[in-house]
Protein: Protein translocase subunit SecF
Organism: freshwater metagenome
Amino acid sequence: MSRLGDLGNRLYRGQLQYDFIARRRRWYAISGLIVVICALSLGIRGLNFGVEFTGGTVFQVEAQQGTIEQARTAMTKAGVNNAVVQRINGNKFRIQTEALTESERNKAVTSLSKTLSVKEDTVTVQFVGPSWGSEITKKAVTGLVVFLILVVIFLSIYFEFKMAMAALVALIHDVLITVGVYSLLGLEVTPATVIGVLTILGYSLYDTVVVFDKVRENTKGLAGSSRMTYSQAANLAVNQTLVRSINTSVVALLPVVAILIGAVGLLGAGTLQELGVALFVGIAAGTYSSIFIATPLLTDFKEREPAMQALARRVEQKQAAGPKADKKAKGTAATTPGEPVAAVASAPAQAAGKRQQPARKSRSKKRR
């Protein structure tokens, strides 16, 4: 068996445990700091929305020669400033600008063809109206809200409402971090980004459901016993599913890393990069939140219940009484100095004498 498999078995059987729940304030502080940084970036810098959301014009030019700076200079000569120029696949330029009129687009095409030494008919132009981008944004927000509502309803039915709320907080945590990274890095937000965000929401929810299912199994009938507190049972569940969460995350991240390497290193920055970054950050944040946010938060919710508070007191009393009971048992078994040896030794002798006396009487009767 591999070392990771042996570790998983020991964690599942409770032979080895990492106390995640007891350190939950530390995890809350780390997540809070990251979320605050992302929120500040979103408030100050905002998001770099692509042309699909804001509307504008996109030029694509396939040219073996030329540089990004030359393409940007060509757009400036055509009277178009603040153009965003990207190199794709090593031999293609993607130039994004604000919405241009037909005459402005024609001037830009002519300037690009002369500067990059290509024919005008090889320069493709895509115009996206702002109304279309606004509609895409509205549908994306609507889809996100509907998804979160359905998550709460499903988890409330399948588990309980407090588990649903803990999972919802974890999902919002993952979305804020993923979107915040786009703001911090200045990455372009496109429909591919929205697809990536919605995908990682499903992944994060799956990982949280796996942990919560084990929590429910460990805490079934727990309120009527005194074997462990809710925190201890939840922490055991996290440890039992820890290796599974790590394995699932690693397997999911490997193809995402391949996408990023292919997008950035081989194919150039583009749609694959926008999708890959959202998936990578979201999967990592989802794995973190299912262990360090969702389950500890659920524990905080549950331990406010009177039944769980009473359970914690019983477990504490039992643990406190354990050492005292052991000492009392040892003191009862031990003998006081001076008498015990004689008392213990005489008892068997007396018992033996009583057992022998009836036997002698029976023999005497037979002789008569």
Q: What stands out?
A: The first strand starts at residue 48 and ends at 49.
